[in-house]
Design goal:
Blueprint: H1 2-5, H2 30-47, H3 64-68, H4 77-95, H5 100-112, E1 129-131, H6 133-136, H7 141-146, H8 157-163, H9 190-194, H10 251-255, E2 262-265, H11 267-280, H12 288-310, H13 318-322, H14 330-338, H15 349-363, H16 368-376, H17 389-392, H18 401-406, H19 408-415
Antiparallel strand pairs: 1-2
Helix pairs in contact: 2-4, 4-5, 4-11, 11-12, 11-15, 12-14, 12-15
């Protein structure tokens, strides 16, 4: 939450039942919240019993449900340790530009002692931490709703340019079947999994900047999926998308409510974080060979994990039966890693870091907060020049009106004379 808002109530928040002095609490600095969380994560990881997966379960233990739930990887102390250490590495690297000393100390401890501080950097899907709803027996009804109500989610030219070997096609003066292309020539196979064709079974992105005509907003001109593609309807034929002018986010990737996990931190992200640390020399000696190895391991993990998730989707529909995305082979991934512009260039820090951040940005397709954090800490992620000021300088979410109403004094102190806008840091 602090990554979205910045300074916020933290150390004294949540204690209103203990006395009225906790009804109106001061804001903690964003940096201090990070430092506290880093220390808490270290303590948590250290508290797990080394080498033991046995949990003493007592009657009435409120944590037993959480422990048994396979939330990360059920009843495994090792996986919980890896989860805590991986989140700690993420936070430490995000803090590196603000407080290098604190960040480097945590990074050094983690990367310098992998036996004591193991990470989620091992076995594809099994090393990705998240909410495995199938194991929990949950149904996430909000998932498909969020991708269909007011549907504006579609393939844009920024992502197209990072995945395709041909220029992005554009809609003409009026949307017509001839506008798109039958083959997007994605050299990144994740493109075929993330997105799908438009109403004419063509591929076309929405022009994000520099459009020569007024384009319909989002994937569908009427603001929602038509007919059978509406979230509450049963699955119908894949081609039932009458108003889809652009290539929308893959519908069946987002409508599954029982099988596809909600990722908290992916194995790929952990590899990319390690690559950044070794390339920049954060907490460890600069090591381009290790940075390259971690970068390439991250790409492999991302592709393997994303396509393993595809096999979990609980939809036996026209799309998956007739046109399933081709699962990349090991040689396909190797070819991608060796492609010009993708092949790691550790000799140039600027290029190397841009490559790492691009891959982390792509892997976090369903984790937009990761991309936002990269942007906030100054990482160069794929974008299109010419963004309007309100988007180019978007640093945080404004504080909600409830803070102005119920915690006004501390709210004003936190702002320190700044405006409560996304442009104020």
């Amino acid at each position: 939450t602090a990554d979205y808002f910045g300074d916020m109530p933290f150390t004294k928040a949540g204690y209103a039942a203990d006395g009225k002095e906790f009804n109106f609490v001061a804001y903690d600095k964003h940096e201090d919240i990070y430092k506290t969380c880093l220390d808490m994560l270290k303590k948590s990881a250290d508290s797990f019993i080394d080498g033991s997966d046995e949990q003493v379960e007592s009657a009435g233990d409120a944590y037993n449900i959480f422990w048994k739930s396979s939330f990360v990887s059920g009843k495994s102390y090792l996986m919980w340790r890896k989860f805590a250490n991986s989140i700690r590495l993420r936070y430490a690297i995000q803090l590196a530009n603000v407080d290098p000393a604190t960040a480097n100390a945590h990074i050094s401890e983690i990367l310098g002692n992998p036996t004591k501080y193991p990470l989620l950097d091992g076995d594809g899907r099994d090393e990705t931490a998240g909410m495995w709803i199938k194991k929990l027996g949950y149904t996430l009804g909000s998932r498909s709703w969020s991708f269909s109500a007011e549907n504006l989610t579609c393939l844009g030219t920024v992502m197209w340019n990072e995945m395709s070997s041909i220029p992005a096609p554009q809609i003409g003066t009026t949307a017509e079947e001839s506008d798109g292309v039958a083959d997007p020539q994605f050299y990144d196979p994740r493109g075929y999994l993330f997105f799908e064709t438009n109403r004419w079974n063509k591929w076309i992105p929405q022009q994000q900047i520099g459009a020569t005509i007024t384009q319909p907003p989002g994937a569908y001109s009427n603001g929602s999926y038509p007919d059978g593609r509406y979230h509450a309807q049963t699955a119908q034929e894949w081609n039932n998308k009458k108003e889809a002018y652009y290539s929308s986010v893959n519908y069946y990737l987002t409508r599954d409510e029982t099988s596809y996990p909600e990722v908290m931190i992916s194995e790929a992200e952990v590899h990319f974080l390690k690559a950044e640390a070794y390339q920049r020399g954060l907490g460890v000696g600069k090591d381009i060979a290790k940075a390259k190895a971690s970068y390439e391991a991250g790409i492999r993990a991302s592709m393997e994990t994303w396509f393993s998730f595809f096999t979990l989707i609980n939809e036996s529909t026209y799309k998956w039966v007739m046109y399933p995305p081709a699962v990349p082979s090991a040689s396909d991934i190797t070819a991608y890693i060796g492609k010009s512009g993708i092949a790691y260039n550790g000799a140039d820090d600027g290029v190397a870091l841009k490559q790492i951040y691009k891959q982390m940005w792509i892997d976090s397709f369903r984790q937009p907060w990761i991309a936002f954090n990269l942007y906030r800490r100054g990482a160069t992620i794929p974008h299109q020049d010419g963004l309007a000021t309100e988007f180019a300088n978007f640093y945080r979410l404004p504080y909600p009106p409830s803070e102005i109403t119920y915690n006004s004094q501390n709210y004003q102190a936190a702002l320190g004379g700044r405006e409560n806008t996304p442009q104020s840091k």
